[in-house]
Write a structure and sequence with these properties.
73% of the residues lie in helices and 3% in strands. It is mainly α and 307 residues long. The chain has one domain. A two-stranded antiparallel sheet has the order 1-2.
């Protein structure tokens, strides 16, 4: 086995897992804590990518564009909570699904009207557009290392926020018993709007980080929202720790499957058959993992202690 390739692919899987965590953590806050099924979370990921892309082209500075785009994406999330989500909290999950599915169509149409049908390529500064040799023969793009660093920093920040701040205490209390928290004088509507805005910023950040690798394009949130739901189901709905570990598992399994599964299949079938079967099986692996975990732990790997 080529161990250099294995290590590089492990790092690629770590990078994918941390991007998934950024999306899934926001979804965990909204779905697990507010009990709101937000199918439009992926569209906010798209909006964040487009805002960052436009600011990068305008300002000529990708990092500055990210700093400015984050609060703008949070404001979009806040507006969505006030105008749409707040009216659906007391409804059942089917109403949430129908309402946010309609929101997907609205956001995609607005993106088409504002930015046009073509995607936007996001240029990187020269110091991020290179490669780093980790050790002899193992080379990884500099920007992917930045994604890993940002993902780990955000994970640490969220752990601190949820567990060691007053806002985190209120979030956890609101998740346990929102009626009691409201009775104690906490403005629960403002609290939930802030949580929704934070979730939007996390999804938008993931979109901003992936845009230079792919492009900012209409509909880019469609696939990642499905994978993000898989992540929070595997980890346990409402569990930030579960979302983090599940995202890393999904990222590494998906990357390693796409890289090495065809070689494994070639051991007992023809090369052509292995190259045909491997992509299909790779695409199914995370769903097989989800089914296997739910068979033994229906609440996920790390269900919240209080539900």
């Amino acid at each position: 086995m080529d161990y250099t390739l294995l290590i590089v692919q492990m790092l690629n899987g770590l990078q994918l897992g941390l991007l998934l965590f950024l999306v899934a953590s926001g979804l965990t806050l909204v779905f697990g804590i507010l009990d709101f099924v937000n199918l439009a979370h992926g569209s906010i990921y798209m909006v964040g990518a487009f805002i960052c892309a436009s600011l990068t082209l305008w300002l000529g500075n990708f990092l500055l564009a990210v700093v400015i785009a984050l609060p703008l994406t949070g404001a979009v999330g806040y507006a969505i909570e006030v105008l749409v989500a707040r009216r659906l909290y007391d409804k059942d999950h089917l109403d949430h699904v129908l309402g946010t599915f309609g929101l997907i169509l609205v956001l995609d149409t607005l993106a088409h009207m504002i930015w046009g049908p073509a995607g936007i390529t996001v240029p990187l500064p020269a110091w991020l557009d290179g490669q780093v040799e980790i050790f002899d023969g193992a080379v990884i793009p500099t920007f992917r290392l930045l994604i890993i660093a940002v993902g780990l920093a955000v994970a640490g920040g969220l752990f601190w926020l949820v567990n060691y701040t007053k806002l985190g205490m209120l979030i956890r209390a609101g998740a346990s018993n929102r009626t009691m928290v409201a009775a104690l004088g906490v403005d629960i509507q403002t609290l939930f709007a802030l949580v929704f805005a934070l979730g939007a910023m996390l999804a938008g950040l993931a979109g901003m980080l992936i845009a230079p690798i792919t492009t900012a394009s209409i509909g880019m949130g469609g696939q990642i929202i499905i994978t993000a739901f898989v992540v929070i189901i595997i980890g346990g709905i409402g569990s930030m720790k579960g979302a983090f570990i599940a995202a890393l598992l999904v990222g590494v399994i998906d990357t390693m499957g796409r890289s090495f599964l065809d070689s494994g299949f070639a051991l007992f079938m023809s090369r052509d058959a292995a190259e045909t079967a491997a992509p299909a099986v790779s695409a199914m692996m995370i769903y097989i993992l989800m089914a296997a975990i739910l068979a033994f732990k229906p609440q996920g790997l790390f269900p919240p202690k209080v539900r």
